[in-house]
């Protein structure tokens, strides 16, 4: 069973919620619910389901053998495409 809560909002926040609800084609109550869920999850710590959190231990663990790949990645890609074209 769902519980109900009443909250008083100032006009600015009410207008912002209404605007977001129209943009996303959702009910205002859905927007408030989503905002509360996000706030609570941030307070409770990092969400391990975020892609970065799942792979952060792997970042930097593999070497490409190219010392400046991060700085010149576009050049390497362009050259690779020219070779294969």
Description:
- The longest helix is centred in the middle third of the chain and has 16 residues, at 28-43.
- The protein is mainly alpha-helical and 85 residues long.
- Helix 1 crosses helix 2 (28-43).
- The protein has helices spanning 11-24, 28-43, 51-55, 73-84.
- The protein has a domain at 1-49: Arc Repressor Mutant, CATH 1.10.1220.
- The mean pLDDT is 87.
- The chain has four helices and no strands.
Mean pLDDT, all residues: 87
β-sheet strand percentage: under 5%
Number of helices: 4
Uncertain residue ranges: none
Name of the level-1 CATH class of the domain at 1-49: Mainly Alpha
Structural class: mainly alpha
Instruction: Tell the overall outline.
Output: elongated
Radius of gyration: 23 Å
CATH-assigned fold name of the domain at 1-49: Arc Repressor Mutant
Number of strands: 0
Q: What is the N-to-C succession of helices and strands? A: HHHH
Helix content: 55-70%
Biggest sheet overview: none
What is the annotated CATH architecture of the domain at 1-49? Orthogonal Bundle
In whole angstroms, how far apart are the ends?
A: 61 Å
Top keywords for this entry?
4 helices, elongated, single chain, mainly alpha, Arc Repressor Mutant, 85 residues
